[in-house]
Amino acid sequence: MINESRRGFMGKAFGAVAAVGAVASLVAMKKSWDPLPSVMAAGFTTVDLSKFTGNKLEIVKWQGKPIFILKMAADMPAVEKRSVKVGDSYYSVMIGLCTHLGCIPAYRDTTKDFKCACHGGEFTAAGVHSFGPPPRPLDIPPFTIKDGNTIVLGEAGAEYKALIASLSTDINIA
Length: 174
Ligand code: FES
Fold this sequence. Notes:
The protein has 174 residues and is of the alpha+beta class. It has helices at residues 2-33, 37-40, 158-166; strands spanning 45-48, 57-62, 65-71, 84-86, 89-95, 106-108, 113-115, 122-124, 129-131, 143-146, 150-153. The strands form 3 sheets. Strands 2-3-5-4 form a 4-stranded antiparallel β-sheet, covered by helices on one side. A 4-stranded antiparallel β-sheet has the order 6-7-8-9, with no helix packed on it. Strands 1-11-10 form a 3-stranded antiparallel β-sheet.
């Protein structure tokens, strides 16, 4: 009798622990499945540029791709057909995948350029290929500018359309 009630208690205790564990696992799985709120809205990524520093590369994720956003420092001139003006500052906004075979180039803040470790390709701070095998500049993702300090990736705004309209035909657009 004592053994039976003990078995019953142990069974219930194990069952309760298993149930709590299962619920915790489901909650954790759901969290990992849910994309971030900014990404959920049909693939948009909203970036607040207000805390960006000149000559410091920031990388955000848009549709699974690394997006380079580089604010130009005072000694870094805007580049025609590449630079994006937001508020009073200029930025490079580019997909951070080498146009040779897709490696992620590293930004060198001392020389203010990008170096791709895979085959030695180089790009200027504006993303224009300057050395090695990359056949074209870094691609530009669709974007739009909201208020004076926010950029939304994934929406082709007027600034993006004006930029790509001015590009030469050898530059691929995402
Ligand atoms: S992948 Fe970048 S140089 Fe080849």
